[in-house]
Automatic annotation (TrEMBL):
Organism for this UniProt entry: Streptomyces drozdowiczii
Protein's name according to its UniProt entry: Uncharacterized protein
Chain residue ranges for the region called Disordered: 1-30
The organism's taxonomic lineage, starting at the top: Bacteria, Bacillati, Actinomycetota, Actinomycetes, Kitasatosporales
Amino acid sequence: MSDESDSVSSTRGVTPDDLLHTGATDNPSAEDLVLASGKDLTPANLEWAERTLAREGRAAIDKRLP
């Protein structure tokens, strides 16, 4: 079986913590925000995400992730 830090455990179906969290040092993209919000990647949603990131910065994605 592969190391759980690299993939989802096939026996338990649990994603390891280090794969769930984005970390505080990265800069989320509009695509990241759209997906974190559970929306489809459409031009309108990408425009919304760009505006939201410009207004809220990193906090925009932090609000939407566990």
